[in-house]
Amino acid sequence: MDYRQYIAGKINVEGVSSEEIASLLAVPPDSAMGDFALPCFRFAKALRKSPVLIAETLAKEIAPDGVIAEVSALNGYLNFKVNKEGLAADVLARIAREGRQYGASDEGAGKTVCIDYSSVNIAKPFHIGHLSTTVLGGALYRIFNFLGYKAVGINHLGDYGTQFGKLISAYKRWGNREEVEKGGIHAVNALYVRFNEEADEAMEAEAREYFRLIESGDKEANDLFEWFKSLTLAYVEKIYDRLHIKFDSYAGERFYTDKMAPVVEELKKKGLLKESNGAQIVDLEPYGMPPCLILRSDGASLYATRDLAAAIYRKNTYDFYKCLYVVAYQQNLHFKQVFKVLELMGYEWAKDLVHVAYGMVSLEDGAMSTRKGKVVWLEDVISRCVEKARVILEEKNPALENKDAVAETVGVGAVVFGALYNNKIKDIVFSYDKALNFDGETSVYVQYTCARAASVLTKAAAEGIAFGDAAEGTPCAQEAELLKALSDFPATVHEAAEKYEPSFVARWCVDTAKLFNKFYFDCKILQAEADVRAFRLALTKATLTALTNGLELLGIGVPEKM
Questions:
Q1: Is 13 exposed, middle or buried (0-12, 13-18, 19+ CB in 10 A)?
Q2: Using one digit for the tens of pLDDT, what is the confidence trace for 165-199?
Q3: Which alpha helices (DSSP H) does 155-252 contain, by range?
Q4: Which domain, by its residues, includes 340?
Q5: Do 349 and 385 belong to one domain?
Q6: How much is the pTM?
Q7: Over the stretch 10-46, which tens digit does the pLDDT of each residue have?
Q8: One domain for residues 277 and 165
């Protein structure tokens, strides 16, 4: 049972849907007040009554039943206490029944969500700045699939532009195929950096000519470009595998080369294209924005041109319900312009385009700067985190089997969780020590909690203790709080999708792990009386299932032992 939806269905506020009421229901900080609370302040203006009077009126209208044990009003809040025995039976039975699908739904059946994320640049290594878009997009991909949508993961490769002409020029001047093959993406990037350091006007002109050759289909230029691309994808696939990231499409900027001219022609036909200092623009001044540049004065396309073509292609190809762009907040204006141009072109579905903006990631010693040479490669961050996890595991559990595999799961999870735990728009300062803290708000803490729960169940099995997955019982305070958290998981996943905010799932995992550990330390499990023991073992198993589901939605594995 979805307790929020059930309670919302009992509340009648004129002009407010039960879905909106369900979204407003919160868990009070003090459980003595109730299990769920509805703040009535938002209804005061529409109903022309004080929040206190609204709450008191609603409390009189709702009668307790088998699910709702008590209804009360306090200081503008409508508080509900649920039947604890019913809560226990319902939650444990549902988790036992649904297992690894607990929290999933079919709400998105028949709907496609395109998610544009990671978008690596060909011939450039992954740096830590790519972390957020990659893991945020990956989490949303899994969450939407979990809710029955068909998620389409798109890696909009940065594979278009004069920089590839520069790379060919650099390779033909200083490159060696054997050395580049051996050095991979870092050798390719070194050539690009050297070109930018040594380039003069003649070299820049040569680079432009090589890019023209790529565009015109020259075999040698395109063979070199495809080689650079294959080296890049071989490199990034290894990182994607470690981060549990997948894509359904690698259609990048170059893919839209032959799809931009029809867009430009359509803009002309619809009277939207204007000339400005030789360039072609769409005037957005009436909408409070600077003009959207479509073609430069030399006729070259821009990011906006390609993004317009990409959006139209994606709608025609996937008929998406939503199309998400997981791109840093610095591109806010760019996406506002692109979305507005599509709206002006008459595309009603422009309203379904969403810029999922996020903040920057840096290490404790400062932000990354490519120009200053202060770039931190993502592969190095992951590997260092795994190495540090290996050392910590060796100290905490020298007898642990498969330490390398566990260290990989713990270290990679720490990197992912570090980028997903806070609200996506916040800038993140990544700390190895904080990310690997067994007692902090980290994935390691949640993973260790799962290992603790698994250990309890293993001991029970070893001792021949049988219990039903959906054992019944009257929960004590600690058990009731944990059950409430478990019951809230489906609503949390739904809200994470609705607001494009995986941090809701990450925070739920930490909060639930804290509640389980309180239960673990305060309540005897294996030493309890038989009926109580059976109930607590069922609760332990349910918690392990739900936490595992939560972590895996984020792309984080769960070791059996730590």
A1: buried
A2: 999 999 999 999 999 999 988 899 899 989 989 99
A3: 163-174, 177-198, 201-216, 219-243
A4: 112-356
A5: no
A6: 0.91
A7: 999 988 998 899 889 888 888 888 889 999 999 999 8
A8: yes
